[in-house]
Design goal:
heterodimer; A: about 375 residues; mainly beta; Double Stranded RNA Binding Domain; Neuraminidase; 5-stranded mixed β-sheet; about 10% helix; disordered N terminus; B: 60s Ribosomal Protein L30, Chain: A; 2 domains; 5 helices; globular
Chain lengths: ~375, ~170
């Protein structure tokens, strides 16, 4: 353990652009102490929440002898000038952030995480999900901390299964406005919306590839629900599977070469893995009889998915290298954050953030009727 | 181990399915050709769906959802029960006469995750399509859609409600 701790400080202390992120496990007590110095009022609380939520830091008074690093910032017409100094007063980060004050704080928080830990932060990312606040299922978006809540669709029918492009600029979802299940695309900047996949049968389960230029989807146009890969705009569908059963919930490997999905024929649904260009699927054994809604972590090492447990659903994580599965509590439809450490899922009608490393559960949003099917940009 | 075994059996299962579905064709030996033609011909539900009739919605006024009673399914199952053959024949007869089309809408109970349920619902709709076509119905006049666990027939919980919700409804386009 002492050696591991030494690694943490070496990795965080070297700051040489972090050639390789440290692969050690940081337990609760290994959090880095960070002091908050002078900060513009409109940035301070957002930044502090982001840093705490990242799971890597504990916040202490800036003057405290225990503060390994001190964070400060000054606002101005040119944006937010954010600084991080080590305890010797040496600058380890100094950069100007533009945009509104929340966006500035989120970007600064992510760069602090990346600079001091070598890992990606998720403060600047976007969430999308389904909620029943209006009595109908509609798609909503929010920032990763639950702020900037927006009702995106007003279809008044059934709008479900949102997917966010990795850059958070485009959203795809399954909508029933035509009476059939079609895939719609919304450009979040302009709000422009188009129905991009409307084959006969049911079109659903869209998932953006890591580069954002392809979609994996389940289509039944050829007579059975099968997996297809299309362009991001829904064109040129290419069929991946030919089976008697049902493929659902495709999720991409970080290199865009492979897809994991759930397959059911006779018996309970199981996870399978297939090349994104087709070929023979391979089963992933989890030890559970019901395995659905998989989501592949951005670091490629883990798959979060749903199992049935105690009359409800639990979130489980499969470690691909060791093939070991562990459950992390009740919830539905887990999705990984950019840091491959946090999960967002629905539980009891609320949107939950879970630090899969420490087990800390935070309610991000509630009071919107029943929340389900979150998506998370990376 | 059990799962990888299952996967190895998939091509065999597909061929077995093929043999069942295409009763008029001679059975292919196991280990025979698995090119795309033989596989896509493996089942009636491997035949492409006809072009959609846009403007016709299963939920709209131009579709009669009460003409035929629903086909019900077991838990996590998409097998059409042999005891429903009478209902299936009535639907096939309807498609043989006249020129109308039907929309088969698949539904699940609430005990599944959302995207899994949408897939299972579509498979239930396609299983009824296959049965209707086997009974002589015209495949080119059948559309399908899945609503997953949405729009339950019975909003209660418990097996009696769930059993009513695991269904394929038959919408007759007016």
């Amino acid at each position: 353990m002492k050696n591991l701790l030494a690694c943490v400080f070496l990795a965080s202390g070297s700051l040489l652009g972090a050639a390789e992120p440290p692969t050690i496990t940081i337990s609760k007590s290994d959090k880095l102490s960070i002091g908050l110095g002078a900060l513009p009022a409109e940035v301070a609380s957002v930044l502090q929440n982001d840093l705490l939520r990242s799971g890597y830091f504990k916040v202490v008074p800036a003057a405290s002898a225990g503060a390994g690093f001190v964070v400060s910032a000054t606002g101005g017409a040119g944006g937010l000038l954010g600084k991080v100094e080590d305890r010797g007063g040496k600058s380890v980060l100094s950069k100007t952030y533009s945009g509104n004050s929340r966006a500035q704080a989120h970007e600064f928080a992510d760069e602090i995480v990346e600079t001091l830990t070598g890992n990606r932060g998720f403060a600047s990312t976007k969430l999308a999900f389904v909620a029943t606040r209006t009595g109908k299922k509609e798609i909503y978006t929010a920032d990763s901390d639950g702020s900037n809540l927006t009702q995106l669709t007003q279809d008044g029918s059934i709008s479900v299964g949102p997917a966010l492009s990795p850059d958070g600029r485009t959203l795809a979802y399954t909508g029933y406005k035509s009476g059939y299940a079609d895939i719609y695309q919304i450009l979040l900047g302009s709000g422009a919306r188009s129905r991009i996949i409307k084959f006969p049968g049911t079109n659903s389960g869209a998932a953006y590839s890591p580069e954002g230029n392809r979609l994996a989807v389940t289509l039944s146009k050829d007579g059975n629900p099968e997996l297809y890969v299309t362009s991001a705009g829904g064109g040129s569908p290419r069929r991946l599977t030919r089976t008697p059963g049902v493929e659902s919930s495709p999720t991409w490997s970080p290199d865009g070469e492979e897809i994991i999905y759930s397959y059911v024929d006779k018996g309970g649904p199981q996870l399978y893995r297939i090349s994104a260009s087709g070929g023979s699927p391979r089963a992933l054994s989890t030890g559970h009889g019901y395995n659905t809604e998989p989501n592949w972590s951005p670091d490629g090492k883990k798959v979060a998915f749903n199992i049935r447990e105690g009359g409800g659903f639990a979130v489980a994580i499969l470690d691909l290298a060791s093939s070991e599965t562990r459950t992390v509590g009740s919830g539905q439809d887990p999705v990984w954050g950019a840091d491959s450490r946090h999960l967002v899922f629905a539980s009891g009608g609320s949107l939950i953030l879970l630090d899969a490393q420490t087990g800390q559960r935070t309610t991000l949003l509630g009071g919107l009727g029943a929340i389900s099917e979150p998506a998370w940009s990376r | 181990m059990r799962f990888s075994l299952l996967l190895h059996l998939l091509p065999v299962a597909a061929l077995t399915f093929s043999a069942c579905a295409n009763k008029n064709k001679s059975d292919r030996p196991f280990g025979g050709t698995t090119d795309s033609d033989s596989v896509s011909g493996m089942a009636l539900n491997g035949s492409a769906l006809p072009e959609r009739q846009e403007g016709v919605s299963f939920l709209g006024n131009n579709v009669d959802r009460n003409r035929f009673s629903p086909i019900y399914f077991g838990y996590d199952s998409y097998t059409v029960s042999p005891s429903d053959s009478g209902k299936i024949r009535q639907i096939a007869d309807h498609l043989r006469g006249g020129s109308g089309t039907i929309i088969l809408a698949g539904f699940t109970d609430e005990r599944g995750t959302p995207e899994y349920n949408r897939g299972l619902g579509e498979r239930r709709a396609l299983a009824v399509r296959q049965a209707v076509v086997e009974a002589g119905g015209n495949a080119s006049r059948i559309q399908t859609v899945s609503f997953g666990a949405e729009l339950p027939a019975d909003t209660g919980s418990g097996e009696s409600a769930w059993a009513k919700n695991r269904r394929t409804e038959i919408g007759v386009v007016r």
